[in-house]
Specification:
By secondary structure, the chain is low in regular secondary structure. The protein is 12% helix and 10% strand. A three-stranded parallel sheet has the order 1-2-3, with helices on one face.
Length: 120
């Protein structure tokens, strides 16, 4: 279920100016060849490069992610499809509560994306 391959979006002048990092920045110069989409210049991020509809908002494993920040959040996920949704436990939860939450999620039958203490 991998999305189609995207071009490598490079920052303008990234290859020629050593101090520039590779993180994407929109080219804004008045005479920028990249901004006006000249042939032979790197590709620019555009709306047409979006993921297909069936892959949108899914992680690489093909699940929609739900973030759990407390035990009370588990009440909301009881009726959801276990094959479609996966759980990610917030990092701000301590060890004692996390073990409790992981055991409860395992009982409900959901996949945990970041297990620490209970192996699925």
């Amino acid at each position: 279920m991998n999305p189609r391959k995207l071009p490598e979006f490079k920052r303008q002048l990234k290859d020629s100016v050593k101090r520039l990092k590779g993180k994407w920045r929109k080219p804004r110069g008045k005479q920028s060849k990249m901004r006006i989409h000249k042939k032979g210049k790197p590709k620019i991020v555009r709306i047409g490069y979006g993921a297909p509809k069936d892959l949108k908002y899914k992680n690489r494993a093909g699940f929609y992610e739900i973030l759990i920040e407390s035990i009370n959040d588990l009440e909301k996920i009881k009726n959801l499809d276990r094959n479609l949704y996966a759980i990610r436990i917030s990092s701000k939860i301590g060890k004692k509560k996390r073990i409790e939450i992981e055991n409860k999620i395992k009982e409900l039958g959901f996949k945990i994306l970041n297990p620490k203490y209970v192996t699925s």
